[in-house]
Amino acid sequence: MSPVRWTDPERQRLEERVAATELAWLTLEVDVETLRVEIDNFALIHHERLGPLYARIDELEALIAEAVAARTGDAEDLRRAVDARRLVAELPDLDALFDSVRQAEERVAAAAAENLDPDGQQPPGESVGAEEQPRKVRPGKEAQRLYRELARRAHPDLSTDPAEQQRRSVFIARANEAYARGDASELAALTEEWSTAPEAAPDLAAPERGDWLLQRLDWLSARIAELATEQVRLEGTAMGSLLALAPGDPDQLLAELAEQLLAKAAAQQEELARLLVQEQGIGAAADRVDNGAPTPSAEPSANHRPSPHQESPSMFQQIPTVQVATVPADAVLIDVREQDEWDAGHAEGALHIPIGDFVARLGEVPDAPLYVVCRVGGRSAQVVQYLVGQQRQAFNVDGGMFAWEQAGRPMVSSSGEEAYVL
User: Fold this and answer.
1) N or C: which terminus of the chain carries fewer CB neighbours within 10 A?
2) Low-confidence ranges of the chain (pLDDT < 50)
């Protein structure tokens, strides 16, 4: 019978602490990565299901603000209307954003197999130093010391096992790249990584085993602290906070949010209809849809759906207005639509100043009679009202670009293709 090996009780307790800490580290790492995946997926589904509703509500808020400004003519109401419209115009293209995220993930997955970063360069985390500091011909003394220590401990030729040689080769290649940049901080991180890796653990009976266990314990504790910090950060994000409201059933949470947004949109539509019918002769205009054609009913209803670019020319009857046919060929024509509308088709020779930028760019407007145009006349009427308040001679082009196009007035597009009204 072989004798039982004596074990230092203190060493044994340290072994147990390291094993328990490793388990806690791995468990927390899985939890944090799971939370990250859940938040990413929740954000994507949240956008796909509720994004159109949020956009609808923002558009209705802009329309309400514009209707209030048109009715009161108050400068503060006009400012609110301009701000609300700017908010809608500046909303990011989230579909394009999520597409770019998916493409980046695909690049990362493809590059991982080739040990490259998503841009086809070497692994990440090693190029930052090169951008922050110019590369030197000779690495610094600290980098030289760290690199020599790594080479002494991690060189592939120090092992005869093929698998271990491969592991060492991959690791020493990372050290070579960091050394070529003179990146002492990266070399220090690599030194810590190598010295605390399980593969580098001394034999159970080796005298240096105790020191290694202490280093391993410190390394694990630091990783746990980093993961805990990341977990708190993720839980504090907008999507993380929202997900925390119903962690057991996020789909039901999305359904409840959708109901709330639909109710809010319905209330906003009723408010918009109320504002519209307060204007004289607005009954028919309140039921206009995107092309400006009236529906059979002249009374607003709860089912009324103003289009994203709806404008009601009759809201602005008190504002100086001219018909398209009377606009002189050499008139100073100002188009206050958004960039995509302008690009699709605009009057040849017009000056483009989006309504959200108009106040800031007033100095660009010539000192001459001004003819202001938008899509059908709503936004341009607000600008004319502002210009009149500034003691400027200005006219709203009745019917906007739709009337301009129907009258056969010259139009061009930014791309050179056939122009049309967007």
Assistant:
1) N
2) 1-4, 6, 94, 97-98, 101, 117-120, 122-132, 134-137, 280-317
**Any domain includes 3:** no
Q: Are strands 394-397 and 370-373 parallel, antiparallel or unpaired?
A: parallel
> How far apart are the C-alpha atoms of 422 and 343, rounded to whole Å?
9
Residues in the chain: 422
Within a domain: residue 306?
no
Place of tokens 């990584």: 193
Show the domain range for 107: 9-238
Domain edge (last residue) among 238, 265, 299:
238
Set 374, 394, 403, 419: catalytic member: 374
Pinpoint the alpha helices (H) of 237-338. Answer: 238-244, 250-277
Structure tokens at 266: 């319905």
The pLDDT tens digits for 231-284 are 999 889 888 888 888 877 888 888 888 888 888 888 888 887 777 666 534 333
- Are the beta carbons of 66 and 382 closer than 8 angstroms? yes
Q: What pLDDT, on a 0 to 100 scale, did the predictor assign at position 177?
A: 84
Asked whether 385 and 73 are in contact (CB, 8 A), the reply is yes
374 catalytically annotated: yes
**Are 109 and 14 members of one domain?**
yes
* The predicted structure's pLDDT at residue 150: 81
**What is the Cα–Cα distance from 384 to 324, expressed in whole angstroms?**
16
Q: For residue 57, how many C-alpha atoms fall within 13 Å in the half-sphere facing its CB?
A: 13
Q: Is the Cβ–Cβ distance between 355 and 81 less than 8 Å? A: no
pTM of structure:
0.41
